[in-house]
Amino acid sequence: MASIQKRGSTYRVRVIRRGYPIQSKTFKTRIEATKWARGIESQIDSGTLQTAEQPSIQLINANTLFKNVADYYIKTHTIHKRNCKSETYIINALIRYWGDISICKIDVPKVLKVRDDLLANQRTGDTINKYFNAISKIFQMVASEWSLAINNPIKNISRMTVNQSRTKRVNGLIEYTLLKSAEEKSPRLLTHIIELALETAMRRGELMGVKWSDVDLEHRRIYLHTTKNGAPRQVPLTQKAIKILNVLPSDGSERIFPVSLCWLRRHFENARNNAKAAWTQPGSNPFEDLRFHDLRHEALSRLSDAGLNVIELAHISGHKTIAMLKRYTHPSHEAIFRKLDS
Q1: For 172-341, which CATH superfamily applies?
Q2: Which of 104, 107, 153, 186 has minimal Cβ neighbours within 10 Å of its Cβ?
Q3: CATH classification (class only), 56-163
Q4: CA 237 to mean position of chain CA atoms
């Protein structure tokens, strides 16, 4: 069976047929996607489809080891997802628990053991729910593609309470201390990255992926081809963002920030730790649990303080629901009072 899904400006087609690995490809038009899907289905029907891996359906049953089922799921399902890397990490962790156990013997107590271990390691409710989702998807595949009547243990387990949204603000003296620490202890490029994150509300991966060809200074925007939710978007540029882009070194690099995510993680942690050590104000240290992602929260909160409505904020952030946008945006009391007084 073929399914075609529109993702931004492209169409992803998947052909699912029992006994064959999922065939998937992306096209610019629906017509091309439909034509390719029909060709694949025709090859399957005639027995001429050549695949690198064609599992034998006769070997798949309730006693198949979990590691074999999970490996199959990674190669035929996870690989096509935007969260491929994180889901693969989770499934490999599950394989370490249950690798040599038959799929039919994975039950509620075994899942709860994983949950309790994650809690003992101080993993959040959000993270544990991701483990639950991965387990559930694997068992859904077993039921839908292999027609095996095996109970999905997740159906009998309640999801963890979602963590409360973070309300940390990175402004005033906190922002100054962070930028000062970045300037003193890290390459100058880190300061530009932090400043642009605060001006655009872009995610870390989005910032690191921006190419100069995606920057339109004349119309004051950055075009993001690939985002977390799969839809492209245009990020408007403030006057300060334009100034930051204008002073970035031009060394012929394709990307505006020609460094890796590991580079950013390492140097941001150094700057945060130095800022934490330098903080002398009373009360809790704001750098104790500061994350790079908090810069996105701060940027959206500033835009809200400036008077942008939820539709405008969602246009900039890329959030598809108001509920998710609410978790990221925390207007200051001063901004609310200004609006009330006016």
Answers
A1: Intergrase catalytic core (1.10.443.10)
A2: 107
A3: mainly alpha
A4: 23
